[in-house]
Amino acid sequence: MTRPSGTLVFSSAFDAFDVWRDALHAHLPDLAIVDASEVADPASIHYALAWKPPEGFFDKMVNLRLIINLGAGVDSLVGRRDLPAGVPITRITDPQMARMMAGYVLFATLRHAREIPFFEQAQRRGEWAYRHPRSPETIRVAVLGLGELGALAAMELQRQGFTVLGWSRSPRQIDGVQCFAGIETLDTVLEQADILVVMLPLTTDTRGLLDRERLSRLPQGAALINVARGALVDQAAMTDLLREGHIGSATLDVFAQEPLASTDPLWAMENVLITPHLASVAIPSSSARQIADNIVRVSRGEAPANQVDPSRGY
Ligand code: GLV
Predict the structure, then answer these.
(1) How many angstroms separate the alpha carbon of residue 71 from the centre of ligand 1?
(2) Which of 105, 115, 228, 297 could, after both became Cys, cross-link 302 (CB 3.0–4.6 A)?
(3) Which atom of ligand 1 is nearest to the CA of 91?
(4) Are 18 and 45 in contact (CB under 8 A)?
C-alpha cells in the first residue's frame, strides 16, 4: 500500500481542524496536515480539503494535485477564478452524511405533516386545539433531486407511508417512489406537492429554478423544505407566498445569502422554521477513509473517485 507523503491544507470555518487532522492521520501517517492559517508557502501544498475557502485561497498553489470538497455540494468551488487548471475536484459521498440528511428531511416532513407548528402556536395561547391527524398516504411529498442524498430521503419518506414523488434531471428508479424526469415534468410534480423537499445541486441550470411562477403551482397551503441551496429558490417570491399563505409553512436550512441578514422578514414569520445550514455535515470518522483512498490514488497517478464534472456543476 502506498503511503503518500506531502502536505494537505485544511480550510473550513465550520469544521474542527484537529478532529479532521486526527481522523486523516489514522489513514495517512506520512502526510503533513496543516490548517490554512499555518501555510507560509502555497507551493508546498499538494492536497486541499476545503469548505468554502476564501477567494484567492488556491492562488500560487502550483503543486496542488487534488481538491477535496468538505461537503456534498460543490457549487462554492466550481466556477471560482483561483482554481489551478487541471486539478481534479472530488466531493464526499458518505452514507452517514446521507443518513443525517434523511433524518433532517424526515423531521421537517413529519413536523409539517403532523401540523406541529399549529400545536406549538396553540400551546403558546394555552389552548387545547384538537386537529385530527391525517394519515401519511394522503399526503404527497415531492423530492426534487434524486442524487445520493435525495434518493435516501425519498426512500425514508416512503418507508413512513407518505405518497412520495421524485423529480430529477435524468430518469431514476426508486422502489415505491413515483419518479419524474426532465424540466417538462416539473410543473406536474409541483402541482401535486403537499410538501415540497428541495434537494437539488446548485448549477447554472438550477439557479432560480423555483421562481414565483413555479412556486405558485404548489397547492394552496403547501409546505416547503429547502435543505439544498438558497439560490435554487426566488427568496423574495417565496417570502411573499408565505406571507399570503399560498405556501402554508416552510422549514429552511439554506438561504440565498448566508448568514441570513438579521433584518430579513423570514425571521419573524410564524410559519417559518429557520436552521443555520446544518441539515447534514461531513463526518470525519466515516469520510476520512474515502478522502485517504483518493489521496493514495492521486499520489499513484490515478484518477480520484467521486470526481466532480465542472461543466455539469456537480
Ligand atoms: C452542505 O451544504 C454540503 O453541501 O455538504
Answers:
(1) 5
(2) 297
(3) 5
(4) no
Domain limits for position 106: 95-274
Mutate to test the pocket of ligand 1, among 206, 281, 286 (most ligand atoms within 8 A of CB): 281
The protein residue whose alpha carbon is closest to atom 4 in ligand 1 is: 73
> Measured from the CA of 280, which atom of ligand 1 is nearest?
1
Same domain, 32 and 60: yes
Report the alpha-carbon distance of residue 234 to residue 143 in Å, rounded: 18
At 113, is the pLDDT very low, low, confident or very high (cuts 50, 70, 90)? Answer: very high
**For the domain that residue 152 is a member of, what is the CATH number?**
3.40.50.720
**pLDDT, tens digit, 9 for 90 and up, residues 31-68:** 999 999 999 999 999 999 999 999 999 999 999 999 99
Minimum-distance ligand 1 atom for the alpha carbon of 254: 2
For the packed helices 17-25 and 284-299, what is the interaxial angle rounded to 10 degrees?
60
Residues with a known catalytic role: 229, 277
Domain identity same for 270 and 287: no
Residues 113 and 262 in one domain: yes
Contact 100, 280 (CB under 8 A): yes
Residues 129 and 266 both lie in one domain: yes
Q: Based on the domain organization, do 54 and 149 belong to the same domain? A: no
Atom 2, ligand 1: residue with shortest CA distance: 73
Residue 89 shares a structural domain with residue 101 = no
Long-range pairs for 114-118: beta carbons < 8 A, 24 or more residues apart: 117/249, 117/270, 117/271, 117/273
Say if residue 226 is in the same domain as residue 115. Answer: yes
